[in-house]
Predict the structure of O-antigen ligase family protein.
Amino acid sequence: MNHFCVPKLGVESSPELDRRFSLNDGSMVFIPLLFYAFFCQSLASSALVLDICLLLSAAAVFLYFIANRRFAYKRFGLELAWVPFFALFYIHSFIYGVSNMTLLVVYTLLFLCMYAAAGEQSWVTSCLRVLVAFAAFHAFCTIVFWLVPALYPSVKSAFFSGSYMARDYRSGFTAHYSTNSIYLSLGLVCWACGLVGSRKKARVKDLILGLILLLALFLTTKRGPLVASVAAIVASCLFVNRKKLTGTMLKTLAVAAIAVISVGVLATFVPAVQATLERFIELSDDGTGNGRSYLYDFAWSMFHANPLLGCGWGAYSKYVATTPLGAMYSNLGFSSMSTHNVYLQLLAETGVIGLISFVLPALLSIFAAMHHSEFLLEEGLYGNSFCLWACLGMQIFFLIYCFSGNPLYDPQCYIPYFTSCVAVFAICGAENRSSNC
């Protein structure tokens, strides 16, 4: 079976229909989930609203895809590669107990989506539009609070009064500047990689949106998401233009040089930009990796204790909590601690088997989609090529950020990530291939 055949240009896959925004296409499965992901901290005190989002999404899965048997005749593809990962997660939850009920519920919902919603692609465009819109909203809030600092205290009082990390414009409309940087990164990568993949000349207003997201991301002063975002965009650009790689690399280097000079000049006038640069300099002088080397040591010790199957999903935070370092973080207000490196935490909690069960399908999804991208037409904004590369960019960003963050355990990260995986399977799905494949 050939998984990378050219899709038919029939009525269902016409650009005009694929680019429209519609709620009658299965997107109600993912839009409530994306709302949950982008506002889980902003509406943390409104647990009922977040629970309703999950209920709406679950109901939409059953009413639109399962009850109507819309997936009954689909041929399964690379989504089957994720079965070992989810199976391992459930086995660990059964043996060691559920350490995070939200993770269990949302993972289950996303697992169902992976096999039900991957049967058609009409929902992808609507969801990507919503994702970019949510990210643009957070960028707007960040820039407004930066320009008008007097507005922030009243917003914090109304939404984040209990969070000591919600200090100023850097956290935007979230309780933590790390979360804000994730939202901005997802929007920037989705938009920029989509434009690169569409192979169409970007309009001025398209570039403006990208620059707004980039500026807001820079204002958060977060290093990891910024580096991961740039790396994902550059990787996408180089692959899309690989047939003229030398010229593309020269252009990339020229843009990078201009960007560095521009940031350097801007930093002399904008203290917020200078703060971001100073954080990069501080990291180069810190031999402990901002204190994370101690967290890494705990993960390695857990891995050596049980290298094959690990010590149990969620065991890391319990282990760290018994140490003086864990007590220090607890006094600072952290309810739990993660390794800040997903790959190390998977080794500690699920062993080599768990790490392989995650990395293998993640890489298969990226490589398969890259191969399939060769056959997509250049359809412009929110066409198939745009959507595929937007999702690919988010996946590349996610895997890179896994080296310095906790995206596999935070809903603001893993919901968009697994949604992008389902979208890739949908675009490359069997029902969109020609009958000769």
